[in-house]
Design a protein that fits this description.
The chain has 14 helices and nine strands. The strands form two sheets. The chain has a six-stranded parallel sheet, with helices on both faces. It is of the alpha/beta class. Helices cover 52% and strands 14% of the residues. It is globular. It has two domains: 4-162, Rossmann fold (3-Layer(aba) Sandwich), CATH 3.40.50; 168-294, N-(1-d-carboxylethyl)-l-norvaline Dehydrogenase, domain 2 (Orthogonal Bundle), CATH 1.10.1040.10. It has helices spanning 12-23, 35-43, 52-55, 68-76, 98-110, 123-129, 140-150, 165-193, 198-205, 213-223, 233-250, 255-269, 281-284, 291-294; strands at 4-8, 27-31, 47-48, 60-63, 89-92, 114-117, 120-121, 132-137, 154-161.
Length: 296
């Protein structure tokens, strides 16, 4: 079904969402603080918006932003997506703190708007192929409305509970992904040291207990030191730190999560915050630690 939808935040993920929505015939209004990002979105088939509230003019807007402070500004600041008089469904696909999400949902409801948290797994490739996995939080009615829009980018959507529940489940996802990707980088370093063919190794491990979608999708990328960005180191640090803080607040130790976060933080100290997750290989192999390789 063709419908109007706004997208605020046109980074790697937001651009992929815009592209997929436009390909599926939706009328997309796109906004970002970076004019060049808006121009690229127009090239993907979107219409430029000058503010988040203009992007939300069709009554539904997706946020794809890096942290809670930016989400708050985009939703409730001057020209924010939830600042208009017409009721708006805000679908927040950012990965942020569950507590902040609950607060945003309450503020939106108080102004006559609706809020659904819809953090994702699958990255930009998943969005472009329409096969994201989404964890949804919100009321039954609001989540039902959100599903109709998100079906263009997702093949699996689970209503996890009230506002904030989707963000909580996303933290669980990131614990698994962040620690597993760190392990993939260790194995990739061993493969390179032994001069093995990474595709042969991947195929040999396929079907066994070490097999996983992460192995199939990312192992050769890691072992080839492929710098193409599908997910950034800085975003994973945010998520792993969020999971660690949640664990501490509940008295649950998360030693593997903490260790993975520190490896990622080492990369940040080397100027690789904006690099792809494959840059984890740089921690184990000095020959590929040059930021110029990963950020070119």
């Amino acid at each position: 079904m063709v419908q109007g939808v706004g997208v605020v935040g046109l980074g790697v993920m937001g651009s992929a969402i815009v592209t997929r929505l436009a390909r599926m015939g939706n009328e997309v209004r796109a906004y970002d603080v970076n004019p060049d990002a808006i121009a690229r979105a127009v090239g993907f088939g979107a219409t430029a918006a000058s503010t988040p509230v203009e992007a939300a003019g069709a009554g539904v807007v997706i946020l794809s932003l890096p942290n809670a402070a930016i989400v708050e500004a985009a939703a409730f600041g001057p020209g924010g997506a939830a600042a208009g008089g017409s009721p708006t469904l805000v679908i927040d696909m950012s990965s942020i703190d569950p507590g902040a999400t609950m607060g945003f949902a309450e503020r939106a409801a108080a102004s006559g708007h609706a809020w659904v948290d819809a953090p994702l797994s699958g990255g930009a490739p998943g969005a472009l192929a329409g096969r994201l996995t989404l964890m949804l939080g919100g009321t039954d009615a609001d989540v039902t409305r959100a599903r109709a829009v998100l079906a263009a980018v997702a093949s699996r959507m689970t209503h996890c509970g009230p506002s904030g529940a989707g963000q909580t489940v996303k933290l669980l996802n990131q614990v698994i992904v962040g620690t597993a990707m760190t392990a993939l980088a260790e194995v990739a370093a061993l493969v390179r040291a032994n001069k093995l063919d990474p595709e042969v190794v991947r195929d040999a491990l396929g079907g066994g207990r070490a097999d996983s979608p992460l192995l199939q999708e990312f192992f050769v990328k890691f072992a080839s030191a492929d710098p193409a960005v599908t997910g950034r180191i800085g975003n994973m640090i945010k998520d792993l730190d969020g999971a660690t803080q949640a664990g501490r607040s509940l008295g649950v130790p998360l030693p593997l999560t903490s260790a993975a976060a520190e490896v990622h933080r080492w990369l940040r100290s080397r100027g690789l915050d904006a690099a792809d997750s494959a840059a984890l290989l740089a921690y184990y192999e000095p020959d590929v630690a040059d930021p110029g390789h990963w950020l070119s």
